[in-house]
Design goal:
Layout lengths: L5 H4 L2 H6 L14 E3 L4 H9 L20 H5 L1 E3 L14 E6 L9 E6 L2 E4 L7 E3 L14 E12 L2 E9 L3 E4 L9 E3 L2 E2 L11 E8 L8 E8 L3 E10 L4 E11 L6 E8 L1 E3 L14 E2 L3 E5 L5 E5 L7 E8 L3 E5 L20 E7 L4 E8 L10 E7 L9 E10 L10 E9 L5 E9 L1 H4 L6 E6 L3 E10 L4 E9 L5 E10 L2 E2 L3 E7 L2
Parallel strand pairs: 4-12, 20-34
Antiparallel strand pairs: 1-5, 2-6, 3-7, 4-5, 7-8, 8-9, 9-10, 10-16, 11-16, 12-13, 13-14, 14-15, 15-26, 16-25, 17-18, 19-20, 19-22, 21-24, 22-23, 23-26, 24-25, 27-28, 28-31, 29-32, 30-31, 32-33, 32-34
């Protein structure tokens, strides 16, 4: 394996910026620079004054057209992991350029105020038989990185965070498997003209000290409409927690921007069976949107896989939290020995400070296969972000088993929908559990409303198997194409449950 020359490593787009941003260029591994705490912010601000140029690199055959299997045949050498053998609880492994991941990124390691640029070469990566011998200018570059540590066992370093592709990242807590993703920013999602996907074009990873409980990753975001400086403080554990601090420098007015965006997959489940014929009872990384709005109301919106793209807006001011949740932790409800959907994380976004007026927007996209993420959710500010003015915000992400907010009320455990013998009539079955209904003496009132159609045969009964309650009702759709439903439990003139919200659409 031949090492990459410094000349090849100077990516075209980055080199064009080098004169204006001397600290922002792909450089050999021996390059070391002194950086200040606001280094990434200054880069983002200066970069915002220039036109966007996508980072790219020209590579020879076959590296410019790798198949999935060929890309997997480029392997990182584990013995080359950063900080291996240094008795830290953190190691870094790197991901090669290729296949769908054709956007090169810079990676710098920061220690004691000095930043060292890494170089992708034959010391880090090996090529398998599906690719063969590499050319002299071996087509290496970074597309991202992974963080490993003793998250599950003290004597084993397992992967629990990955940054790769555009501004995507994924994480897990102890005992979980990867599922949904987060993103740095969403721009024009499901809007006319097409979505814009910002990219993290460079990372500065700070070396943790011995015994540190967190690792810090700084990232430079870039897109045609904005730049941004990101700081991720990552704390692994039973729940992996990320504190995120962001400063955006818009090049253009951002009229439809999504903060704290999450992306997931919902194919089928007991409330939505548009996809038929699969042996598995449910297939999803997330089953519902949870919201704790500024008024303290808790909302649960089961996800769907609609025939047509759908957008739902939950108007609010200063939200306390929102996220995509995987509540079902029973293997028997998925029956998938490979995917283990019951181990997928819930991801909760907790805003810091007031985010003002806006709405949580949920986008649901039709999908026929589980390989496609088809659910997006984010916070959309009411006011556009002005060009030329910095915009700062912060939030905490919890990659965990359940929404990490204490709740003495009842939560929606499961939503099921079936047919009845009556024409145009659906049966809804909603189970609740939680402290408010576990030992309740008198059955609460089920308060139900529908935007159209007719609700009949409302029944509330005890459900001993879940130490909770079951509410059933029938909906005569009346020939409508779309109906918005709302349900909550009321006892002693007080709402004691989450508010269940559902959008029924005609099959």
């Amino acid at each position: 394996m031949l090492q990459l020359s410094a000349g090849w490593a100077a990516f075209a787009a980055v080199a064009e910026l080098a004169s204006a941003l001397p600290a922002f260029a792909q450089t050999p591994a021996e390059t070391v620079e002194t950086i200040a705490p606001d280094h990434v912010k200054k880069l983002a601000e200066r970069l915002s004054a220039r036109e966007f140029v996508a980072p790219k690199v020209d590579v020879p055959e076959p590296f410019n057209n790798l198949t999935f299997d060929q890309y997997r045949d480029i392997r990182f050498r584990p013995e080359q992991a950063t900080w291996r053998g240094e008795k830290l609880d953190y190691e870094l492994q790197y991901l090669a350029l290729g296949y769908l991941y054709n956007m090169p990124v810079e990676i710098w390691i920061v220690e004691a105020g000095k930043a060292r640029a890494l170089k992708a070469d034959g010391r880090m990566f090996s090529l398998g038989s599906l690719i063969g011998k590499g050319p002299e200018a071996a087509p290496y570059g970074f597309s991202g990185f992974r963080i490993h540590g003793p998250i599950n066992r003290a004597d084993s370093y397992d992967e629990y965070v990955v940054f790769q592709g555009a501004s995507y990242l994924r994480a897990i807590g102890r005992g979980q498997t990867y599922g949904l993703s987060a993103r740095g920013l969403a721009i024009n999602t499901a809007r006319t003209g097409g979505e814009e996907f910002p990219v993290f074009r460079a990372f500065w990873i700070e070396k943790p000290h011995a015994g540190a409980t967190e690792i810090v990753v700084n990232a430079l975001l870039d897109s045609p409409s904005t730049t941004g400086a990101y700081r991720f403080s990552i704390q692994p554990g039973a729940a992996t927690i990320m504190d995120v601090d962001v400063t955006l420098y818009p090049r253009k007015p951002l009229a439809h921007v999504g903060l704290g965006p999450l992306t997931s997959m919902f194919l089928t489940g007991p409330a939505n069976r548009r996809i038929q014929g699969d042996y598995r009872p449910a297939i999803h990384d997330s089953e519902g949107l949870a919201v704790l709005n500024g008024m303290g109301e808790r909302i649960w919106r089961p996800l769907t896989n609609p025939k047509k793209l759908q957008a739902s807006a939950f108007i609010d001011k200063d939200p306390k939290g929102f996220g995509l949740s995987q509540r079902d932790r029973s293997f028997s409800n998925f029956e998938d020995l490979e995917a283990h959907y019951e181990r997928r994380p819930t991801l909760w976004v907790e805003p810091k400070g007031g985010w003002g007026d806006g709405y949580v927007e949920l986008i649901e996209i039709p999908a026929d296969e589980e390989i496609h993420d088809n659910v997006v959710v984010y916070w959309k500010p009411a006011k556009e972000l002005e060009a030329g003015k910095p915009f700062t915000y912060a939030y905490r992400m919890h990659w965990t088993d359940a929404v990490p907010v204490a709740w003495s009320g009842a939560r929606v455990l499961k939503t099921r929908i079936g047919n009845t013998r009556k024409p145009d009539t659906k049966l809804f079955v909603i189970d609740f559990d939680g402290p408010a209904v576990k030992d309740i003496r008198e059955l609460p009132l089920a308060v139900i409303s529908a935007s159209s159609g007719t609700i009949t045969n409302v029944v509330t009964q005890r459900h001993p198997d879940v130490a909770g309650l079951r509410v059933t009702f029938e909906l005569n759709t009346g020939g409508n194409e779309l109906i918005e439903l709302r349900l909550a439990l009321k006892a002693n003139d007080q709402m004691i449950s989450e508010t269940w919200i559902y959008r029924w659409t005609k099959p």
